[in-house]
Amino acid sequence: MHTPHSDAERRTRFIFDDMPVRGLHVRLQAVWQHIVCRKNYPAPIRHALGELLAAGALLSSNLKIEGTLTLQVQSEGKLKMLVVEATSNDTCRATARWDETASFDEGETLCDLLGNNGIFAITLQPQEGEPWQGVVPLEGGSIAEMLMAYMLRSEQLETHITLAADENTVGGLLLQRLPEESLDKEAWQHVTTLSDTVDAAELLSLDAEALLYRLFHETPPRVFEPEEIEFACTCSRGKVSNMLLLLGGQEVGSIVAEQGSIEIDCDFCNEKYVFDETDVNALFGMDVTEVARATMQ
Which single residue of 39, 142, 206, 250 has CA 20 to 30 Å from 30? Predict the structure, then answer.
């Protein structure tokens, strides 16, 4: 399932010709709506997931190969997990898990949600070849601070990230020093200080051209043609079938024998896949439910 194109679903690259700094701007509305309407997210969870979605859309622009970039935050607090997947085909999806018995307040910070222990992981899964993963402790009080700490620690790249999210839109701005090129501290500090003047309302409402003019009209960057971002979920009945095969005929047969069917919901798009007795017997090529009933007697 894909989102239709709109003016907001864009990621825009830019580069400064007079200094070794590149950048990206992203703003998503329809993609975010497709995600946020699937679950009843508590407000602070929704905000954190929206910022991570914007971050995923920004960072996936650096994918040099066909594949998927996954950003994941895990903790033992009220927020259990945030996951964003963004692909080299300019699609993304996202979901969150949290303690559904807990209460949430609008003003809760990310640190409040995460508690003391947590990790931040970035995984690159090429279409062909072995995956690569980097895992670091959670550092910083926001998604942007965590990502900047990760980039400096893991990739030795000075990166400046600003993120924003509300119930309608997510937005982000990224600046990065180009590797192996010299840039004096004052010049880097100048562009990052300018980017710090962006507020959430501007990130969520302005397109790249308007925002970059507002920030850098004295030293305008070269702006490239924007890329369209879409929502797309990679779940399928075939993938669920493979998962059931991994569970094994005994376990699947027992569930169907007791409940009449087995239902698997996709965490990302909420699609429901139902397999009844006929389906699972055909899947395993034998009457697994009858075997399970005989074992249960």
Answer: 142
User: How far is 237 from 246, CA to CA, in rounded Å?
Assistant: 14
Check: CB of residue 104 under 8 Å from CB of residue 122: no
pLDDT tens digit sequence for 186-203? 888 999 999 999 999 999
What token pair was written down for 33?
Answer: 């709506």
pTM score: 0.86
Q: Quick check: 81 and 74 in contact, CB under 8 A? A: yes
Residue 102's Cβ-count burial label (10 Å; 0-12, 13-18, 19+) is exposed
The tokens for 243 are 């998962």
Q: Calculate the dihedral angle through the C-alpha atoms of 82, 88, 92, 94, rounding to the nearest 10 degrees.
A: -10
Q: How far apart are CA 97 and CA 79, in angstroms?
A: 7
Pick from 247, 155, 206, 152: which is nearest to 27 by CA?
A: 206
